[in-house]
Design goal:
Elements lengths: L4 E5 L9 H7 L4 E7 L11 H20 L5 E4 L2 H12 L3 E5 L4 H11 L3 E5 L21 H9 L39 H6 L4 H12 L5 H4 L12 H5 L5 H7 L6 H22 L21 H9 L5 H13 L4 H14 L4 H11 L5 H12 L14 H7 L3 H7 L8 H4 L14 H16 L1
Parallel strand pairs: 1-2, 1-4, 2-3, 4-5
Helix pairs in contact: 3-4, 5-11, 11-16, 13-14, 13-18, 14-16, 15-16
Length: 450
């Protein structure tokens, strides 16, 4: 029997359209392995919500592999050392993997390639980050030109079939998923997660089928938090339970603004990866260096009020409570709560980025950092800092009354006319008034010019 080949899995937890798994299966027996790496220098440790999702996604993937006569090997430790040890144990000389673009994964891939035969494959994005460049060969810094250039490369290749897997003569030792303690225990804050989500490839397909039923209405409904207008596919895409090529082609034959709007969101996802590919520490630093002198505030009590959904602004509080309960947050409301933190409270965008990293089941390094810098005005392709969202106006404009009733139930009895801005005594007092906050933010911004 030929020596086995290792498939190193990370955020590509699927069997269909999985180039690394398919290539390995066509060459030799396959050992699929996931390494829980909290040790690599520079590696950003997974947040709590991500660890919940990972537990269930790994369990689902193992079930799928066993249905094909295979299984998932689990190891914990620094990735390169663990994979080299596993190769020595099994006699495997080749490792297949889908390329990843976070700086810690790029350094791990480079190091591993110096020790083993590492075969890297594409498949987590519409086009490999770094491959779509301007006429001068430089990376795009603005989404619009990038999107136009990437659309010229579309559609992506047809999705690959699932593999026919053969098992090695002897399976290596695997750790028990339960021993990793990825799930919260005391207190168990994840009760709402199970109500909202079914991690894994099967759950991704069910969510996709549901989205296709209303994809044509996506453009107008995605901004309305009170209805189910979003795709809710972001965590499945993030964890690679569904590939962007699968999703792009699932929309084939459908027309309309909704389909094109959603494909634009897929392209934005690619854009954010291109940003971190060109600027690996984007989530740590202001892209616009003048903001290094910005007078950010770090008020513990106000940050906690924002995190807990107790700011006195119903739309902000509804969003932050939804995030805590479900590990997800409506896209329009993500912008509202991020603007509130960075402009009403003048809190450093990195505080919000870290909170989202811990609280979101779709916490993606590229998307999270680029989106926070977009809202805060500090980023590569950004709105102006002086564009300050008015939470009360946004709440009315996008019909958030029923959304507020769901997530701020103490306001459920209020009418649509007053629920966005409850009368004094009917709700928590605002931690800062909108006009006061706006004037303070603009004054802070003027210090950069001075």
């Amino acid at each position: 029997m030929a020596a086995p080949q290792i498939v190193w899995l990370r955020r590509d937890l699927r069997l269909a359209d999985q180039a690394a798994l398919l290539a390995a299966s066509q060459a030799a027996p396959v050992i699929p392995v996931y390494v829980l790496d909290d040790e690599r220098p520079g590696h950003r440790r997974l947040g709590g919500a991500s660890r919940w999702w990972l537990h269930h996604s790994l369990a689902a993937l193992d079930d799928g592999l066993r249905q094909r006569g295979s299984r998932l090997v689990l190891r914990r430790g620094e990735s390169v050392a663990v994979l080299a040890q596993l190769a020595a144990e099994t006699g495997a000389a080749t490792v297949h993997a889908i390329r990843h673009y976070e700086h810690w994964w790029r350094s791990a891939e480079e190091e591993l390639a110096g020790r083993l035969d590492l075969q890297l494959h594409d498949g987590n994005y519409l086009a490999p980050p770094g491959s779509v460049t301007s006429g001068s060969g430089a990376p795009y810094r603005i989404y619009g030109p990038f999107a136009r250039a990437l659309r010229q490369e579309m559609p992506p290749a047809d999705p690959l079939p699932g593999p026919e897997l053969s098992a090695p003569a002897q399976w290596p030792r695997s750790e028990r998923l339960a021993d990793w303690h990825l799930l919260p225990t005391s207190p168990d804050w994840s009760g709402g997660f199970a109500e909202e989500w079914t991690p894994g490839e099967d759950g991704a397909q069910l969510r996709l089928e549901d989205f296709l039923d209303h994809a044509d209405r996506y453009a107008e409904e995605r901004n309305l938090p009170a209805i189910e207008g979003s795709s809710r596919l972001s965590p499945h895409l993030h964890w690679g339970e569904l590939s962007p090529a699968q999703l792009w082609h699932a929309l084939d034959g459908r027309r309309g603004e909704g389909v094109e709007s959603f494909r634009g969101e897929l392209i934005w996802r690619d854009f954010t990866q291109n940003v971190i590919f060109a600027q690996p520490l984007y989530n740590e630093q202001n892209y616009r260096k003048q903001f290094d002198a910005f007078p950010w505030r770090y008020p513990d009590a106000e940050i906690r009020a924002w995190q807990q959904g107790r700011t006195g602004y119903p739309i902000v509080d509804a969003g932050m409570r939804q995030l805590w309960h479900s590990g997800w947050l409506h896209n329009r409301v993500r912008m509202i709560v991020a603007s509130f933190l960075t402009k009403h409270l003048l809190v450093d965008w990195r505080v919000g980025e870290r909170w989202f990293w811990d609280a979101l089941v779709d916490a993606d390094y590229g998307n999270n950092g680029v989106n926070w810098q977009w809202v805060s005005g500090t980023g590569v392709d950004t709105q102006l800092y002086t564009r300050i969202m008015a939470p009360l106006v946004q709440s009315v404009k996008f019909g958030a009354a029923d959304y507020i009733r769901r997530w701020v139930p103490e306001l459920a009895g209020l009418s649509d006319a007053v629920i966005h801005d409850p009368p004094e005594g009917a709700y928590l007092p605002k931690i800062i008034g909108h006009r006061e906050a706006r004037e303070r933010a603009l004054a802070a911004f003027r210090t950069l010019k001075d």
